[in-house]
Amino acid sequence: MKILLAGYNLDCDLLRELKDKSGFRQDLTPETISAAYARISRSPKPVNELREIAREEVDKARQSNRNIVFEMGHSSVAEHAVFNIDVIGVSRLLVEEIEKFRLCSFTEKSQRYVLFNKDFVTPEEIKKVRLTDLFASTVDAQNEYYHELYEKLRPYILDKYNGLAANPANKSMLEGWAKEDARYAISMATQTQLGMTINARNLELMLRRLAALPLAEAREYSEQLYAATKEIAPSLIRYTQATDYDKFTRKDLRRQCVDLSEEFDTGSEKLSDVQLTYASPDADNRIAAALLFSSSDIPYAMCLNMADKMTAPTKKSFMKTAFANLQTHDAVLREMENVDLQFELILSSSCFAQLKRHRMSTIIAQEYNPQLGVTVPPSIRAVGEQKKFMKIMKLTENAYEQIRQKAPLAAAYVLTNAHRKRVLMKFNAREMYHLARLRADAHAQWDIRDLTEKMLKQAKKVMPLTLMMACGKDYFPELFKKHFPLND
């Protein structure tokens, strides 16, 4: 066996500096790794030699990539070329579109830990209809109140948790709690930044999808992202223009939806903020069958029949075997992916910003809708700021309505982190474990913790054995002791 390091991330400025100092004229590009790895399947040479050949013949490597990726259709070859991208000065609203891409990595400037300044994006759509003054004055009022609110929440938090505050090491954490509640007052136009790691295949997809969005900011992002990367890997990034499919499909669906809504009574029934809309039938049986299947040579149909005929004590004992050696940070077995849960959620922008990071789920979101109300942090009520908070919300919604009349696509920019949307979220039981571990934990932000605990409570009713060990990581030792007292 021989394990060789083929490459790793280096700061682009460092590469440029080294290239300038050395007089090195050969292209520095991740395309050579893609080309070398693509040749593995048809060449007897060791892969390290293939890399060397690709570096010496960059033009040939690029031609090879074009043939393999675009002519032969082996798009996964482009995934070997990886980019690190600084994304600076984008709105929180645009970040929701950027972070829809599952197979990328994002680290975002956190409104929980950083006290934001008063920088915000003014959409081109709002400038064109001459509503900039209305927009800017509304966002300025939100930002002023955000800082005012933080100054009131900070001493409240420090006093409420005076035991923690006695230790200077906890100061930053406690101040963060004040910031995360104050942020409910600021808009989705607020500027932020993030670090993004993305492979060439997903980069091309992102360029195309965001170029198709109706928002001017999204199209500008696509253009700038392409400009920053096109010279680095031209053989792997070809189709960057918006397609008719991406441009028109959702627009056409919305148009038909309006027509259908007029034919049917959609009602005005108030739904719960968390509603389990689907769960795989006989979930515990299906998971027991999957465990039987993976641990034997029995056909799945027979495994399912065996699971169905097990007595309740036998099935519970068998299922517990899958968790008997589980520890706090272990991922549960992949068999748990064989059953699904679907929830309809009504949640704040602040909560959605965290939920959307769970990209191994299917998340379908509606637009933000002021008619769904706003989420008011309990701490804001505790310091007597609810009335003023709601005054800012009213000011915001008045501006939203005026903007919506002339620039409907950009109206959401003025809405705040407190405003809400409906989300349909589907995931498997294994992802429920991951979600619960992070978001039902005592250290999780209160809004998403409350949402996750409600989801978990409903989920456990329909698959109690499958989810017997699903909980926040802080509660895991106690839950483990409950189910496995002899293992303690």
Give a short summary of the structure.
By secondary structure, the chain is an alpha+beta fold. It has helices spanning 12-22, 31-39, 47-56, 58-71, 92-98, 124-128, 132-160, 162-165, 171-182, 200-212, 216-229, 244-263, 283-294, 300-309, 312-321, 349-355, 378-382, 386-406, 429-439, 446-462, 476-483; strands spanning 82-91, 105-108, 191-199, 274-279, 340-348, 362-365, 420-428.
Give a verbal description of the structure.
The chain is an alpha+beta fold and 488 residues long. Among the domains are: 12-80, no CATH class; 84-230, Gyrase A, domain 2 (2-Layer Sandwich), CATH 3.30.1360; 281-335, no CATH class. It is built from 21 helices and seven strands. The protein has helices spanning 12-22, 31-39, 47-56, 58-71, 92-98, 124-128, 132-160, 162-165, 171-182, 200-212, 216-229, 244-263, 283-294, 300-309, 312-321, 349-355, 378-382, 386-406, 429-439, 446-462, 476-483, and strands at 82-91, 105-108, 191-199, 274-279, 340-348, 362-365, 420-428. The strands form two sheets. It has a four-stranded antiparallel sheet. A three-stranded antiparallel sheet has the order 1-3-2. α2 packs across α3, α7 (132-160) packs antiparallel against α9 (171-182) and α10 runs antiparallel to α11. The longest helix is centred in the first third of the chain and has 29 residues, at 132-160. The radius of gyration is 26 Å and the shape is globular. The two termini are 41 Å apart.
Low-confidence stretches: none
Q: What structural category arises from helix and sheet content?
A: alpha+beta
Radius of gyration based on Cα positions: 26 Å
- State the CATH topology of the domain at 84-230: Gyrase A, domain 2
The quaternary organization reads as single chain
Q: If helices are DSSP runs of H or I spanning 4 or more residues, what is the number of helices?
A: 21
The total of beta strands comes to 7
CATH architecture of the domain at 84-230: 2-Layer Sandwich
Based on CA inertia axes, which overall geometry fits? globular
Termini separation (Å)? 41 Å
Give helix % range: 40-55%
**Main sheet properties:** 4 strands, antiparallel
Strand content: 5-15%
Mean pLDDT: 91
CATH class of the domain at 84-230 equals: Alpha Beta
Give the helices and strands as they follow along the chain. HHHHEHEHHHHEHHHEHHHEHEHHEHHH
Strand order of the largest sheet: 4-5-7-6
